Structure formats: structure tokens, C-alpha cells
Amino acid sequence: MQLLNACVLAHAYDRCKANDGAAGVDLQEFRDVEEYGVERWLDELAQELKSRTYQPQAVRRVMIDKLGGTGKRPLGIPVIKDRVAEMAAVLVLEPIFEADLQPEQYAYRTGRSALDAVKHVHTLLNTGHGEIVDADLKGYFDSLPHSELLKSVARRVVDRAMLHLIKMWLEAPVEETDEHGNKHRSTRNRDEGRGTPQGSPISPLLSNLYMRRFVLGWKKLGYEKRLKAYIVNYADDLVICCRGKAEEALATMRAMMSALKLTVNEKKTRVCQLPEEKFDFLGYTFGRCYSPETGRAYLGTSPAKKRVQRICHSISEETRRNKTQLDRETVVATLNRMMIGWGNYFCLGPVSKAYRAVEQHARRRLRQWLGAKHKQKRVGTTRYPDEFLHDKFGLVRLTKRTASFPWATS
């Protein structure tokens, strides 16, 4: 196996270390590996893989908030040894499968991004594909059928040892900790023959491989051409942009997902008619926008309300009273990093309204934090005017960043 190559394992380790992440069920952290000796640790992993004595440990499951506070999403955290082995497999397999993935698939691929997917949808809308199947799959990562998924891998990979490794990773038990601190292990993935932990290094590649079945089938069976319906996919998010016949496209999509042993979330799946309606995709709201200069209506994008609320919530978390022990420079640097990262993604379409809302919230929260830190009872724009916060303390001005985005409309 190529992943036994020392250079591959070393690069996989560096990639995993760069991602950092929480410890798995064995509580081992990267600093523990460094103290033990990375080269020695990797040699032992290589020997386990070579002798086929390697066995993955349980995956620690934690629940994280979904966007907009709509519930919880399970996240799987493998131990570092399993992360490195999986990453090595990804380094070997990714180039093999890249040529097979469809151009409509944008997630987890070099040279492609969520913004590219957003732009693709925008182009389709402005070429007459204004009927949208806004689709949602229920627990996509937890539903991937192992047998069919391994067949997708085996089309290109004949190495039995590699296939066995992937099967073991798919079937690894999951460990959860309840509210009382008690640990519980489940073998559901192995017992039911489905699911891949969202959060493991190999999960993105496997999820793309299986979604390829749907995207390729849609075209090979002639639905794209006959229904004039075009898929845009990012991980488990997808929309189908249609020039009419959206209801038929939705019914066809349901049937195909059922054949693939995946479940459509009927509560969140709908047909959307533009420009009368709007829909959200990858953090953007698509629908009717108005030019601030001419008042002319057009189909465009803007940052979704939930994403604006989310960044404001994150800003509030970083300026809570329990953070007053930090120095001002640290807090401002944290806020700037968050806001700049958010602005770099939300840079398409008329963004100024969203930027103003985020900027105003950041100023208000920073004033409150300064008041709490310095035990000042009355804190307002008189004590800390806007220009003071931006020019003296260095708080970023999002509303002045649109000039660096040639496609952003202020």
C-alpha cells in the first residue's frame, strides 16, 4: 500500500496536526506524540499497517450546533492514530477519484469552493432557471450505505488491504458521553451497515464518492436534458435549478434518493419559484434584489439572515463579561479575525446592509466589554465614539472592505 510510504505518513501527520482538533477517546494530543517522538510513533503505525495488526479505536461523538440554531449535528472525532492513517489514505485515493467527481460537485476539492457553487447557482438563475428544487437530505453522513459505498470505492481500488481499512473505519464504534458524564459505546454503523463519522479525514472523500452516483445518474438517465434541470452540490447540500418542470424534477429526485437508500427531509425540501420566492443555499439568500443606484430589480444573492445572526452571536460570545481578564488588543484581534473571515466569504451581491449590521453589533459589544473591564457604569458613543474604536483600537471596518471585492455591490 502506498500509504505505508514514510513520506505519505509524515505528510498525513503534518496535515492532521495543522488541523489540530480535540482529542479522541484515548485523550492523546499532538503534544503527547511530539514528546514520544514523531518518527518513532509513525514507524510503529507503519508497522501496524504493514503487519495488518492495526485496529481503529472508537470515534468520540460530540454534538455541535447547526447553523441558525436549528438543532444539533453529530461530529465524530477519531484518535490521532486513526486520523493520520485516514489522512494517508486520502492523500493516496484523492487523485485517483478526482477525475471521476462531477463538475457540479464543489465540496472538499482543490480549486473549488462554496463560493464557486454560489456563483454557479447565480449563473443558472440568470439564464432562465428560476424554478428551484431546494433539497435537504436527512442525516446524509449517517445514512451512507456501506455496501454500495465500498462498491463505489472498488471501481477504482483493487487493493484488498485498502478496502479492508476503509471498511474498518466505517464500522468503528462510536462513543458518546451523556449529561451525567457516563460513556456509552454504540456499534450502530456496523450493525446497520451504514454511516460514516462526519469529522473524520476520509469522510469528505467518501461522501463525495457516493453523491457522485446521484449527480452522474441524473445526467446519464437524461433528466438534466429532458427536464432542463441542473444540479449544484456541496457535500450534503444541493439544489436543482430548473427551467420549468421543477415538480417533476423533485419527484424524480425523491425516487433516485430512495434507490440510493438516502432519505429526503420532506419538511425542508420544497419547490421555490423565483423571483416571487427566495431560498437559502450555502449561507446566501437567492432572490429578488434591488440596485441601490437605479432601484432596478434583479435576481441576486445576499448574506442570509441566519448567517448574520450567527456572526453576531459569535461576537457576543467573545465579548462576554468573563472575557474581561483579556487585554484589549487580544479581544480586538479576535473580533477582527472573525469579521474579516466572515466578510471574505460573504462578499457576493449587495453586502453593505449585512456589513453595517455586523459592524454596529461589534461596536456595541466592544463598548460594553470595555465598560465591564474598566468598571464604567455608563458606556456609550460619547466615551467610545465609532472613530475611536476603529482608528485608535483598530476594530475593522467591514463597510470599507467592499472596494476590495470587485463583484460586491454596496
Automatic annotation (TrEMBL):
EC number assigned by the record: 2.7.7.49
Residue span of region Disordered: 177-201
Annotated Reverse transcriptase domain residues: 45-286
Coiled-coil segments on the chain, per record: none
Keyword Zinc found: no
Gene3D superfamilies listed in its UniProt record: 3.30.70.270
InterPro entries (alphabetical): DNA/RNA_pol_sf, Group_II_RT_mat, GrpII_Intron_Splice-Mob/Def, Mat_intron_G2, Rev_trsase/Diguanyl_cyclase, RT_dom
Pfam families, sorted: GIIM (PF08388), RVT_1 (PF00078)
Keywords per UniProt: Nucleotidyltransferase, RNA-directed DNA polymerase, Transferase
Source superkingdom: Bacteria
Gene Ontology MF terms in the entry: RNA-directed DNA polymerase activity
Keyword Nucleotidyltransferase recorded: yes
PANTHER family for this protein: NUCLEAR INTRON MATURASE 1, MITOCHONDRIAL-RELATED, PROTEIN YKFC
Similarity comment: Belongs to the bacterial reverse transcriptase family.
Protein's UniProt name: Group II intron reverse transcriptase/maturase
Lineage summary: Bacteria, Pseudomonadati, Acidobacteriota, Terriglobia, Candidatus Acidiferrales
